Amino acid sequence: MRQVFTTGLLWFSAIGCGLIAGIYFAFSTFIMTALGRLDQAAGIAAMNAINVDIVRSLFMPLFLGTTVAGAALVVIGALRVSEPGAVSMIAGGGLYVVGMFVVTMVFNVPLNNALAAVQPSAPEAGAVWATYLKDWVFWNHVRTAASVVASALFIAALAV
């Protein structure tokens, strides 16, 4: 039973990380570029609308569930450190929790809040938007890479 639970968590985490990575990849490779080509007020308004809708979507249960599953896999791996796949579970879960969840909470969410606080057509909005595009995308690249590598580590744990 214990192994079935762990295997289920690994599958859920591998798929969840992959889905999250895909969303972040889309933002890193073309969504933010497209929003950056819009005039400042339209770009800010569009990103703020995305930020409002994403927390009300199925993204949030996946985002939170995969984070909890990743943290659980760190604990399970630590308790079974001598078993095959344990190091991959620990590394994948730790990377995902820190590289995706912590980065989101410490960097991306505050940037989203700062963007939401500015009036899109205000004179200071141009500087906020320029900084947002540069900094948010950088941290999104970090989240993307962490999610991809964590997914691969969970798959590696399943393979052994």
Automatic annotation (TrEMBL):
Keywords linked to the UniProt accession: Membrane, Transmembrane, Transmembrane helix
Annotated TM spans: 9-38, 58-79, 86-107, 138-159
InterPro entries the UniProt entry points to: Anthrone_oxy (IPR013901)
Domain of life, per lineage: Bacteria
UniProt protein name: DUF1772 domain-containing protein
Organism encoding this protein: Bradyrhizobium cajani
